[in-house]
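A common beginner's mistake is to predict each chain separately and then try to dock the pieces by hand. The better habit, illustrated here, is to supply every component at once so that their relative placement is modeled jointly.
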Amino acid sequence: MAAAHQSGAPSLSARDLVAGYLPGIEILHGVSVDVLPYEVRAVLGPNGTGKSTLLKVLYGFLKPGAGEIKSGSRVLTGAAPHEMGGYGIVYLPQRPSVFPFLSVEVNLRLGAWRLRSRHGLVREKIERAFAQFPALYEKRHQSAGTLSGGQQRQLEFARSLLLDPNVYLIDEPTASIEPRIATQIYELIQGLAQQGKAILLVDQNIKGALGIADYVYVMRTGSLYTEGKRAEFGEDVELLVSQWLYTHHAPKPS
Amino acid sequence: MLDYFLIQSANGIVIGVIYALIATGLTIIFALLKIVNFAHGELYMMGGYFGYYVITLAGVPPLPAVVAAMAISFAFAVAIERGLLTPLYSPGMERKSDYGILITFGLAVFLRNIAIIIFGPFPLRPPSFFDGDLVLGGLIISYDRLVAAGGGLLILVLLIFFLNRTVWGQALNAVSQSRESASIVGINSERMYMFAFGLGGALAGGAGALVAPIYSLSPSMGLVPDTQAFVIVILGGLGSVSGSIIAGILLGLSENLFIAFLPDPNRGPSYANAFGLFIMMLVLLFRPTGIFGRHHAAME
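With all components supplied together, the output reads:
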């Protein structure tokens, strides 16, 4: 937690998002979130409440039926996913988004697609990424699909860092990853926040996410159930969250 | 007998290279757009006519005309993609592969018939690349065939280099593996689809322009190579460019030898298609993903 750095202005904010995949079936019923620099904000909630859908809407994979997405004063509602990197936004989906049949090095090279005409700069950035993730350098000629789940995550982070983004939208980074590696991934995410990145983390791993979260959103059936600073929830937040989520008539926290 | 074998093998390799050109284009389109382009043989036919008219109307020499035919075919294919295939990319579109089959099949019929009206039903033959035959001992082969095979191989080598060594080729490959991941790194998938269809059209068109002096042009010339290309793509493994090249050359070669050595020479050509399909069945029995196929279709 890096409360000392609070800067106040959100890097990305969404107001009253309404969205669904099929006409007439609404998944999000008006969700508002803010993502701030130097903060990890966790979105928690049971399966099927629209947490992943929220990230997809924020990244432009799904156009919202209503609501607004802004980055500073720039309106991003309706922007296409491939434009998001240009606004400094990164999305890491639940299944690692590496290209399994391309080598680790080519995966990194494609991460710098936006800079493709500047060969020298791209090479320099890739060298820096390899210096930061030596395990990837050793496997640079291997297909990304042969890496372990944890290493694929590392490759994704290394790839995203090439363009020095300021917002990370992360969906279940440790799903089906062994616990020891999961701890490393949460440390990596926390490290990004300490460098000033704004992070929105959707997770089923409540304990892992709460371990690094500064602020918590709790979702239930397509809307926000409650939200607040991580510290306000006290020590036994895991128990609290599971009570809100899995009992039908839980008292709403004031 | 040995001479006959040599000549037939050389002819087989020439036609095999042409098959490979057509099939790689089909593979690239399939790997990216996930549709089978049933109008691919017609892009091959159109490429042949583009080359013919560049030579006869614009007075361009035959070899540069092949390059011009490829460029025009690229633009023609892009126009088709923009005009007819963009509904494939809309997220709300259902049954995309059905749409792809219907639209490209209809396009094939349309192009074949419009070609009869515009170019006429009679075979046209553009001038030779170089007149005469190369004689090497018992091996006799026309310079036109050598140019067709050599030009085709050059195009294939350039293609492999482009796909594996340039960032644009790698991006095409990336989109074929995952459209979502590609847009996460900032690649505009729709532009890549357009480019892939154009590239496939250029390869088919180049093949048509290369064979024109050998076999002449006719509106229905795309029918047989089209079937062969489907066989090759499946043989080589869906989505595998190198598989398509190897399978194309092997099919051309073995088909020609089959025709040459069938005891009844009159029937050979009519059995050629059946022979290709027979080889395909055999390969699929033992390797259901084709020679180089992966378990799912992406480009490599």
